Amino acid sequence: MAEREQLEDALKLLYDALDSGETVRSADLPVSAELVAAELARDAGDGTLALTDAGREYALQVIRAHRLYETYLAHRTGHPADEWHRQAHAVEHTLDAEAVEDIARALGDPLYDPHGDPIPTADGQLPPPRGCGLSERPVGWAGRIIHVEDEPPELYQVLAQAGFAPDVRLRIEATGTDGTTVRVAGHTVTLSAGQAALVQCDGLRPDEVFDASVIRLRDLREGETAEVVSISPLVRGLARSRLLDLGVVPGSVLTIALRGPGGQPVAYLIRGATIALREEQTERIMIRRRAASEAA
Amino acid sequence: MARTTSPCATCALSTPQLDRLGLDAQEVDYVVALAGNPNTGKSTVFNNLTGLRQHTGNWPGKTIARAEGAFAYRGARYRIVDLPGTYSLLSATPDEEVARDFILFGKPAVTIVVADATRLERNLNLLLQVLHITDRAVLCVNFLDEAEAHGLVLDLGGLSTELGIPVVGAAARQGRGIPELLEAVADVAEGRVECRPLRPRFEIPGLDHAIAELLPLLDHAYPGVSHADWVAMRLLEGDEEMATAVRDGHLGELRADHVATEAGGHE
Amino acid sequence: MSDDPRRDVLDAADRLRWDLPQNFRDRWVEQTYAESERLASAYVRQDQPSRRLAWERRLDAFLTNRWTGYPTMVLMLAVVLWITISGANVPSELLATLLVDRGTALWHSLFAALHAPAWLSGLLIDGIWLTTAWVVAVMLPPMAIFFPLFTLLEDFGYLPRVAFNLDSTFKWAGAHGKQALTMTMGFGCNAAGVVATRVIDSPRERLIAILTNNFSLCNGRWPTQIVLATIFIGVLVPSHLSQLVATSAVLGIALLGVVFMFGSSWLLSRTVLRGEASTFSLELPPYRPPRVLQTLYTSLIDRTLIVLWRAIVFAAPAGALLWLITNIHVGGLSIAEYGINALQPLGWLMGLNGVILLAYVVAIPANEIVIPTIIALTTMTTAAAVGAPETTGVIYEFSDQNVLKSLLVGAGWTTLTAVCLMLFSLLHNPCSTTLYTIYKETHSAKWTTVAALMPIAFGIVVCSLVALVWRALGGS
Ligand SMILES: Nc1nc2c(ncn2[C@@H]2O[C@H](COP(=O)(O)OP(=O)(O)O)[C@@H](O)[C@H]2O)c(=O)[nH]1
Ligand SMILES: [Mg+2]
Question: Which residue's alpha carbon is nearest to atom 14 within ligand 1?
Answer without folding.
Answer: B41
